[in-house]
Design the sequence.
């Protein structure tokens, strides 16, 4: 803001002596100089304060909004219902916005990729696939594999003659391309020494795969919770696998720019999600109640989903986690599921939180 001055004309009807005139003029000029100096200082201070306020406001707006994207049945929508995460982050001047629900990781990752969300929960297979496809994503926190988890399965119709994985030879199996379903099927076939080309993969989203299975368009479906429990308890589907032959990681995926620009807020959100997981592990009935409200399913389905998923425990990845995820990424490359190698070390978000736990 500039300073503007008006020209003032003074007319003197009285005559003054030269000395008197000089003294008055000198005094007047001094006042003008003093006034200009003070006004300049005031304006500079105001301008500085205004600029500082504008900068602070912009920085605050930029650094205090975290958008959480979520799928059905994950910890993020439960945290949304519970409300503790929002209250906790509000004390740190971080505002939370929600995006979802998404039916699968692919659509959630698209939301992150399109700058419509900052953090979302996915499995390691679609997360690595997204990173391999050059999507601007990084690994924030992880949930380590549980060999006894029942949260993934290959399902068939209740009246199907298929009883075991070897019965899948020559059959059609619905999977999500480059995701947890395709990975499960390939790992099951690998364990049973069944060449992958002997089983036809049909690429469908969960919303399309479910009716395809029930109506007989496909013979089996490789999928995860909560779809497993809904299919079993509401549509009489049956699982032909129990535990996963190669248990997978859960991953809180972060939009790369969010991790770079708002590392403090991202770290705070990931930590708060971990705390929600700890609370839910101690209150499984409450976790089931949240699922009933979120998924609009029966209490029986919600309880089975909670049981099959097991404890929620997200931590920041350590060197062992990185090594295991690298092994998975290299396998995906060998199977030509991803187009290029992913360096997991570089794929971990730069939050300065990686440590052995």
Sequence:
């Amino acid at each position: 803001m500039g300073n503007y001055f008006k020209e003032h004309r003074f007319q003197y009807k009285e005559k003054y002596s030269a000395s008197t005139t000089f003294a008055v003029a000198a005094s007047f000029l001094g006042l003008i100089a003093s006034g200009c100096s003070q006004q300049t200082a005031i304006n500079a201070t105001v301008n500085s304060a205004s600029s500082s306020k504008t900068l602070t406001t912009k920085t605050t707006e930029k650094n205090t909004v975290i958008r959480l994207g979520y799928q059905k049945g994950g910890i993020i929508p439960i945290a949304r219902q519970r409300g503790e995460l929002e209250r906790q982050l509000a004390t740190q001047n971080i505002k939370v916005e929600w995006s979802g629900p998404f039916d699968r990781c692919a659509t959630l990752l698209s939301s992150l990729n399109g700058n419509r969300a900052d953090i979302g929960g996915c499995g390691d297979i679609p997360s690595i696939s997204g990173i391999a496809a050059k999507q601007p994503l990084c690994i924030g926190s992880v949930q380590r594999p549980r060999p006894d988890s029942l949260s993934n399965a290959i399902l068939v119709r209740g009246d199907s003659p298929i009883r075991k994985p070897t019965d899948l030879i020559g059959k059609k199996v619905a999977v999500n391309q480059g995701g947890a379903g395709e990975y499960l099927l390939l790992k099951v076939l690998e364990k049973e020494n069944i060449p992958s080309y002997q089983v036809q993969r049909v690429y469908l989203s969960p919303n399309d795969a479910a009716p395809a299975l029930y109506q007989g368009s496909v013979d089996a479906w490789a999928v995860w919770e909560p779809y497993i429990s809904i299919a079993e308890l509401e549509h009489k589907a049956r699982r032909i696998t129990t535990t996963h032959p190669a248990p997978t990681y859960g991953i809180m995926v972060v939009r790369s720019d969010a991790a770079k620009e708002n590392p403090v807020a991202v770290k705070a959100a990931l930590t708060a999600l971990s705390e929600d997981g700890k609370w839910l592990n101690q209150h499984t009935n409450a976790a089931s109640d949240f699922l009933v409200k979120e998924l609009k399913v029966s209490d029986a389905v919600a309880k089975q989903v909670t049981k099959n998923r097991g404890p929620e425990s997200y931590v920041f990845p350590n060197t062992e986690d990185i090594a295991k995820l690298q092994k998975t990424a290299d396998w995906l490359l060998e199977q030509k599921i991803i187009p290029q190698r992913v360096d997991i070390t570089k794929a971990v978000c730069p939050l300065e939180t990686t440590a052995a736990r």
In short: Confidence is low (pLDDT under 50) at residues 1-63. The longest strand covers residues 95-102. The radius of gyration is 31 Å.
